[in-house]
Design a protein that fits this description.
The chain is α+β, with helices and mostly antiparallel strands and 321 residues long. It has a seven-stranded mixed beta sheet, with helices on both faces. A five-stranded mixed beta sheet has the order 9-8-10-12-11, with helices on both faces. A hairpin with a 5-residue loop joins strand 6 and strand 7. Helix 8 packs parallel to helix 9. The longest helix has 24 residues. It is globular.
């Protein structure tokens, strides 16, 4: 059992950091995403938001927990050299000088596979880049790992229900935080028959094998249309009962899921009463470094019929060769 609680300093720092990063992302979206950037398929707005979000979160953590390593997605090396104009935009939106922003981003370069640490944070500054560019769903996801176990997670979903924060702490349940500062517990759905369940899957077909998902749904007797939503907002949807099942089926051989793509979302589901494993039914192993190297794919459910979903996946899906 973790010593952390929803009132611990770690949770307060995480909530504040994710909330600030979500505001930064909203500002970038309002300032830089235009009809022109969408038409040109220009990804520079999400690049600015990604780096600015990581700078804000890493800076917040470093001020209170200067000894804690951070495993982030972005690397400030991509902003150096001939990228001065881009670095300036990042720093402007992060609200700090360029050098400070780059240093904060670099705090996210820790690799626990080469520099083992008993405790570290993992951050996805924007999960769901295409959702961000479409003005749809994306998430800021922050998790805390101790001795290989996720003990705390915060999801910021700026466009879900006008913006929400969801937090979870090991042994302490999952909470939904409203704009006025209130927080209340959330739980997964009580659906008992998988035939009555609703799938939650990625909008982007490249993120999961949607054809196989459809076959699995059919084998379980599911007839409801899938709830398609970008990013770790899918975990939030399962945690609060909007959907009952989330599958992420591998689309290519050898692909390893990144820890920042699942740490926060996983604990939000499990602490809300659900179950999360890989497609073989094994627990997710966060002790292998920056990836879930010991796992393949993801199955998240409300826990009522998880084994049946795993069996259906095993019967209908073959990992790509």
């Amino acid at each position: 059992m973790s010593r952390l609680t929803h009132d611990s300093t770690e949770m307060k720092v995480a909530l504040d950091a994710v909330a600030k990063a979500a505001e930064v992302c909203r500002a970038v979206q309002a300032d830089l995403v235009t009809a022109g950037t969408l038409e040109k398929k220009d990804k520079s707005p999400v690049t600015v938001a990604d780096f600015a979000s990581q700078a804000v979160v890493c800076d917040a953590i470093s001020k209170i927990f200067p000894g804690d390593p951070i495993v982030g997605e972005e690397d400030a090396a991509d902003l150096r050299g001939d990228q001065a104009a881009l670095a300036e935009k990042v720093a402007q939106h992060a609200g700090m000088p360029v050098d400070a922003a780059l240093a904060a981003i670099d705090r996210g370069n820790h690799d626990p596979s080469t520099k083992p640490a008993s405790r570290y944070w993992t951050l996805d500054p924007i999960d769901g880049t295409k959702g961000f560019l479409r003005g749809q769903q994306y998430a800021v996801a922050l998790g805390l790992i101790e001795d290989g176990q996720v003990v705390l997670g915060v999801l910021g979903c700026p466009n879900l229900d006008g913006g929400l924060l969801m937090s979870a702490v090991l042994g302490g349940g999952t909470r939904l935080h409203t704009a006025d500062g209130d927080a209340h517990p959330v739980t997964v759905s009580a659906t008992e028959d998988p035939a009555d369940a609703r799938f939650c899957e990625s909008v982007e077909s490249g993120h999961s094998d949607q054809g196989a998902s459809a076959e699995i749904a059919k084998s379980l007797g599911i007839t409801a249309e899938p709830y398609r939503i970008d990013s770790q907002c899918k975990y939030a949807a399962v945690a609060r009962g909007d959907a009952d099942i989330y599958l992420r089926l591998p689309t290519r051989a050898g692909y390893q899921e990144k820890i920042w793509d699942h740490a926060a979302g996983m604990i939000c589901v499990t602490e809300a009463g659900g179950t999360v494993t890989d497609i073989a039914g094994k627990p997710l192993d966060f002790a292998k470094g920056r990836t879930l190297a010991a796992n393949s794919g993801i199955i998240a459910t409300n826990g009522e019929f998880h084994d049946r979903v795993v069996a259906a996946v095993q019967a209908a899906f073959t990992v790509p060769a």
